[in-house]
Design brief:
By secondary structure, the chain is of the alpha/beta class. The chain has helices at 16-25, 41-51, 62-67, 69-79, 98-116, 139-144, 155-160, 165-171, 204-211, 229-247; strands spanning 2-6, 30-34, 54-59, 83-86, 121-125, 150-152, 178-181, 183-184, 194-195, 218-221. The protein is built from ten helices and ten strands. The protein has an eight-stranded parallel beta sheet with strand order 6-5-4-3-2-1-10-7.
Length: 248
Amino acid sequence: MRISAQLYTVRQCGDLSDQLRLAAACGFTDVETTGLHELSAQQMADIVRQSGLQVRSAHFDWEEFEGRFSEIIEVLNLLKCQVAVMPWLAPDARPDTAKGWLAMSGQLSEWADQLATMGIKLAYHNHDFDLVGYPGETPLDLILAQGNIYWQPDIGWLVAAGLDPTDLIQRYAECILSIHAKDIDPTGQGDERWRDVGDGVVDWEAVLRALARTGCADLFVEHDETPDHWRTLRTGRRFLSDQLGRIA
């Protein structure tokens, strides 16, 4: 498993070029991008190439999939990136019935089919709103039941929802492509609960051992609202590297 940087962590640190330079300075060779950065597909691809970094996975929210699908395909092809992730539904766009989630998952499945013809896999990234319900009947369960949609677990959000990440990792082992490595102090409120990887309550040894039995290729270091971007990236990379060495 590669240890890679999620650019959402450093979204406040200048433009895309600045964010990529910071990730490289912290020792990363691989990243996951977030959206199109208000650039054309060619402009974005040129900036990434100049950085020397590899885009392993790319996030695009629902609105981008709906309105800029052709540009998503173009930038993925230019970057030779074979994984697209849908990570976010705005609160007013979230279904409030099982029927609504089935319709939403059906649309994701259609996009997945289109991307698959170009060798690109589509994954869904969870928060906590999509983990509500009885086991097997949550929005996440309905989405993954489509059969052609992969999963990118956000470990911090799984713990925030009161779940054991290893249980879901084992249940959906065949669906997992990567994770967001995010830690948490559940006693905190809102964004104050997030912690640098290794500074929270996540049992990373258990999580990584479970992931070793899946197709997980990337551990994307993330912190939603870090006060120290440099520390978050360097600490996360070092901690996960040490943990992977222990379970090897």
